[in-house]
Design a protein that fits this description.
By secondary structure, the protein is α/β, with parallel strands linked by helices. The protein has one domain. Helices cover 24% and strands 48% of the residues. It has four helices and 14 strands. The protein has helices spanning 3-12, 18-40, 45-60, 118-128, and strands at residues 71-85, 93-95, 98-103, 106-111, 130-135, 140-153, 157-172, 175-188, 194-208, 214-222, 225-226, 231-232, 237-245, 248-251. Strands 1, 2, 3, 4, 5, 6, 7, 8, 9, 10, 11, 12, 13 and 14 form a 14-stranded mixed β-sheet that branches. A hairpin with a 2-residue loop joins strand 3 and strand 4. The N and C termini lie far apart (50 Å).
Length: 252
């Protein structure tokens, strides 16, 4: 019995629900892709992370200038992540089983995998693994996640991708997010710059906080779309939001 058959068996036996099964399948596919990338890459990790910001305009698609901002970059296979701002901090702090290293002015955080086979490790990480990150004001969060539930509060800018899972935003100052299967919901204060969110399958519900000012371009492939119009206040910044299959609601 391979890993995919084990996931289906766990679902049939009621040990995991449909949502958890979908997340595990997404994570398994991502792990296969990651293994291929690692085998074909000759560059050390330090070079890869150090060059990421410089390549963002060409390959990453990040919408916000990053030259002046410092970032915490979290690379997670599966689990729970909570990121909040703590005004008393001068440097980020991390709680949980993870490796932390500095690359240039940024920090790279990688949760440590649970020992055992892939599926057992992912299940254990997803259900019990939790990473808690606290950032000083002004720092940004960059996310590369395969499967998980993520809560982000007060962060100046959030960018990255999640293959499967949910992202909850509270009072973030900027966003550039891609989710393949899952949901994005919460609140944001978007006053300037370019912002973007995209979901392939799932729902997005974002409340624009008072003081937001932007031009809005929103669309849905198959589902419902609700927006307050194409302009919020003076329209200083821009927000592009798209859901391929699901519902998109922007409140302002």
């Amino acid at each position: 019995m391979d890993e995919r058959e084990r996931i289906e068996a766990l679902r049939r036996e009621g040990k995991i629900n449909d949502e958890e099964a979908q997340m595990l399948l997404e994570a398994l596919e991502a792990a296969d892709q990651l293994e291929g990338e690692v085998q074909s890459s000759a560059e050390p990790k330090g070079v890869e992370y150090g060059s990421l910001e410089g390549q963002a305009g060409a390959g990453g698609g990040w919408a916000y200038p990053s030259q002046e901002r410092r970032w915490v970059k979290v690379n997670m296979l599966a689990g729970q992540l909570e990121v909040r701002v703590d005004p008393s901090l001068q440097e980020p702090r991390v709680w949980g089983k993870a490796s932390v290293r500095q690359v240039g002015q940024d920090l790279v955080v990688e949760p440590q995998p649970v020992q055992g086979d892939f599926l057992g490790g992912v299940l254990k990480n997803f259900r019990a693994g939790e990473l808690d990150v606290r950032l000083p004001p002004g720092w940004g969060l960059e996310l590369d996640g395969k499967a998980g539930d993520i809560e982000i509060e007060g962060v100046a800018f959030v960018r990255g991708r999640l293959l499967a899972g949910d992202i909850e935003l509270r009072e973030v100052g900027g966003l550039d997010l891609d989710v393949k299967a899952g949901n994005i919901e919460g609140s944001a204060l978007l006053r300037e710059g370019s912002h973007r969110l995209r979901i392939e399958m799932g729902n997005a519900q974002v409340r624009l906080l008072p003081g937001s000012s932007l031009k809005l371009k929103a669309g849905v492939g198959l589902g419902n779309l609700e927006t307050p119009g194409d302009r919020i206040a003076d329209g200083v910044g821009t927000l592009e939001a798209y859901v391929r299959m699901g519902n998109l609601e922007i409140e302002g």
